[in-house]
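Researcher: Please translate sequence to structure tokens.
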Amino acid sequence: MILDRMRLTYTSAAVVGAGTVAVFLWWWWTKRQKEALPSQWRKVGELSDLIAFPVKSLGSVRMTSMDCMPLGLQSGWMRDRTLLVIDLNGHFVTARQVPKMVQVTPSFSGSVLTLSAPGMMSMSLDLSQIKGKGFRVAVWGQIVAACDCGEEPARWLSRFLLQEDVGYRLVYYPLQYPMREIRKKNNGFLLTKNDTGAYPDATSYCLINESSVMDLNTRLEKSINAEQFRPNFVIKGAAPYEEDTWGWVKIGDVIFKNVMPCTRCIFTTIDPTTGEKNPQTEPLKTLRAYRQITDPGFRKFVGDSPVLGIHLGLRSSNGTVRLGDPVYVSESTERLPRPLITPP
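Model: Translation complete:
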């Protein structure tokens, strides 16, 4: 029988037995149908770490509480991934090409952003004083709004990253809402234009499960921590890879939808402290051995990129999350997925 409304399947992966991947696909009504927020919730853990990356590809900022906004985590002038390093052609630059970017540490005092790095004197910039005509930059081939932050941060970044006086510039996202379209490779999933953020790769929010990272570490010679995956939310208390099956997530009183699995790239091989790439391309190599999406309908979107963690889209009104907040999932999501077991 042909259904009037087809449901799409959501892909995720979970370890079943030794090295076996369970790929879960959830069903959902058409994207045009308004989603009803769940009414029943089950506690699965609590928020153990809260992380923002105000400058894409640079170091992290940790706080005990942050506001959840359409663009992502925010605390005053500190907004997640709303600053960007670009080259002189207006193309974004990341640690994939320049690993030592992760060694630049940002901090905030009011509207003043300070950047610090090994062997460099700190540089401070008052974001409230950024003026001038806006322009557009390219992020994954998409045109995004930007304002230039001036000569001092451009020179500072160029000297640290290139050992030159020119080459890179720092730009700031001037809007309070997302303006990007969904990347073509992500069109098969559940995110909307409201989830694309300012300068992140895919969405405004990413969640990692501590126990999934711990399970991964049992397969590695050298352990890593959750920050190597650059999440916003780290949770503890859930079973390994349980997050793959969650459709809705509530942290404190803020509600999110699981909009797509988080695919992993070469960035995960960069040590966030030293800025060096792992010579064995770990943990990416190991993840590819057991955390790949094999369903052909979704394989065309993700290729051979393994998955770990989930992308979230904000679905409630803006709210504040705090370390230690309980994390809940919708009770109904447990009955939605049907596992497709992939041979080890």
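Researcher: Any highlights?
Model: The longest helix spans residues 151-162.
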